[in-house]
Write a structure and sequence with these properties.
The complex is a heterodimer of chains A (16) and B (97).
Chain A: E1 3-4, E2 11-13
Chain B: E1 12-15, E2 19-24, E3 27-32, E4 38-41, H1 42-51, E5 56-57, H2 58-68, E6 69-70, H3 73-89, E7 93-96
Antiparallel strand pairs in B: 1-5, 1-7, 2-3, 3-4
The chains are: A mainly beta (16), B alpha+beta (97).
Chain lengths: 16, 97
């Protein structure tokens, strides 16, 4: 059974 | 090194060096030692990252994803290429012809 697809997005985290 | 605007499915991608990678709640997060930025690649992005552990063509990468996820080939290829461009621009993935 195939898994549900999510659009791959690169998230850049702002951690000061 | 390939300019990302010329990205083709025959191009080969591999992991860039100098990143500390960890799995967090099913998502792949990493710290780039080079630029000090933190990234979240998400679940699918984490799979892409793992597949790029050894050099792999984008075509094979997409084929793997299509066989494991509910997504059409063309849709997957477009979205994955866009994602690879982002990673390449940040120096996380290396793209070669």
């Amino acid at each position: 059974m195939k898994k549900s697809w999510k659009v791959p997005v690169l998230e850049i985290l702002d951690i000061s | 090194m390939v300019k990302t605007k010329e990205l083709l499915s025959t191009h080969i991608v591999s992991q860039g060096e100098g990143n500390i990678v960890s799995d967090m709640g099913g998502e792949k997060v990493m710290l780039s030692i080079g630029n000090g930025k933190y990234y979240n690649l998400g679940e699918i992005g984490g799979v892409v990252w793992d597949l790029a552990k050894k050099p792999i063509t984008i075509e094979k990468l997409v084929t793997h994803l299509v066989s494991h996820y509910e997504v059409e080939q063309n849709e997957c290829e477009v979205q994955v290429m866009k994602f690879i461009k982002q990673l390449n621009a940040e120096g996380l993935l290396i793209v070669e012809s």
